[in-house]
Amino acid sequence: MAKARIPTHIGIIPDGNRRWANGRGLAREEGYAHGIEPGLHLFEECRRIGIPEASIYGFTQDNTRRPSAQSRAFRAACVAFANEVSRRGAALLVVGDPESAQFPEELRCFLTRQGDGMKVNLLVNYGWEWDLAGLADGGLKSAAVSRIDLVVRWGGGRRLSGFLPVQSVYADIYVRDEYWPDYQPDQFGSALAWFGEQDRTLGG
Question: Which domain of life does the UniProt lineage start with (predicted)?
C-alpha cells in the first residue's frame, strides 16, 4: 500500500466483548478482559505501520447503566490497557467526563496527554453530549483529538454509537463482523486496504 494512503488517524470501536463471552459459556463481563490484548496488538501494528494517532472506545456514559459487574469489568479493562499502552511508549490521552464516580481514579493522570510517542486517545466515560457541551465554553471537550480518517468497528454494528462525532464527520467506516476478542492482524490489514481504495474528496 502506498504510504500516502495510510490514515493519519484511525478510530477503533471494539464491540462484541459480551457476545464473545456469552458464546463461550462465560459471564458476559468476562469478555472485557479478553479485549485488552487485541488492543495492544493493534497499537503495535499501528506503530509499526506508522499511523500517528488512534482513538479507541473504552466505555461510554450510556454503558455505565449496565449491571455493576459489567461496569467494574470494563473500567478495570480500561485501566489495564491504559497502563500497559503507556508503558509501551504511547502518548496517552484519556477523554471522558471525570466528574462521575464511574471515571476510574487511576486514569486521572492521563486527562492531559502523557508521553511523546504515537498518540493514543482512550475514551473513558465518554458521551457525545458531554463533549459537545464544551462548545458553550469555547471548544469541544475533545479538542485535543484530531480529525479521524478511518473508523473500524468490530462486532458487526453499522453505527458510530456516538464515537467522536465531530472528528468522525468525514471518516470512512469499515465494519468487521468478528467480535473484538477474536481480533486478528489480517482484519486490520483488510481495513487499511479498503481505505486505500476510497475516493477521499472530503466533500470537494
Answer: Bacteria
Q: What is the C-alpha separation between 185 and 49, in angstroms, rounded?
A: 12
Give CA–CA dist 52/149, Å, rounded: 12
Report the distance separating Cα 17 and Cα 89, nearest Å. 26
Please state whether the predicted TM-score (pTM) of the whole model is above 0.90. Answer: yes
Q: Is residue 173 part of a domain?
A: yes
pLDDT, tens digit, for every residue of 113-160? 999 999 999 999 999 999 999 999 999 999 999 999 999 999 999 999
Q: Go through 124-153 and write b for each residue having 16 or more CB atoms within 10 A of its CB, e for each that does not.
A: bbbbbebbeeeeeeeebbbeebeebbbbbb
Structurally, the chain folds into a number of domains equal to 1
CATH number, domain containing residue 83: 3.40.1180.10
Domain assignment present for residue 203? The answer is no
pLDDT digit string, tens, across residues 64-104: 999 999 999 999 999 999 999 999 999 999 999 999 999 99
Domain assignment present for 1? no
Nearest to 74 by CA among 112, 122, 120, 124: 124
Decide if 204 is inside a domain. no
